[in-house]
Amino acid sequence: MSADNVHFVVCDVDGTLTDGVIGINDRGEEFKNFSVVDGMGIRLLMDAGIEVALLSARRCPAVDHRARGLGIRLCQTGISRKKEHLEDLIRGQELEPDQVCYIGDDVNDLPCLGLVGFPVAVANAHAEVRKRAEYVTSADGGQGAVREVAELVLEARGFLKSVLEKFS
Q1: In angstroms, rounded to a whole number, what is the distance separating the alpha carbons of residues 4 and 161?
Q2: Does this model's pTM top 0.90?
Q3: Among 94, 116, 121, 135, which one is least packed by beta carbons within 10 Å?
């Protein structure tokens, strides 16, 4: 179990890719805060050929919009049985669970964390999630945690230097 075998990164959304706050305007429309730092981390992974997917228990158009903006083609929202959907995603990528990193923050992520080879919890995750993770980020969810994991995976796979060189 380590980051050097990761070929696929799957992120929970609320509390992992966002700060966990669900904003609702006066028209009842939901909005979320996403970090551009995390977005760049996702782009770096995809530039290195590492597929990224979003898996969320909540259905929200903002998540679909953010996924499209980042070029993420695997975005599943409104998922109550996340582990089963994660198993389907892994099969669809023709990978083994030990080649997958899952990043989560709350107890509904525990089954997914138990399935994959590189389970990750964000710093402000529930205590049980942090306990079951192989790696706990120093950054909170929505505050660069996904970028931290992206760079860790890219470094472990030997891709970080080459993807960063594209910007120099």
Answers
A1: 15
A2: yes
A3: 94
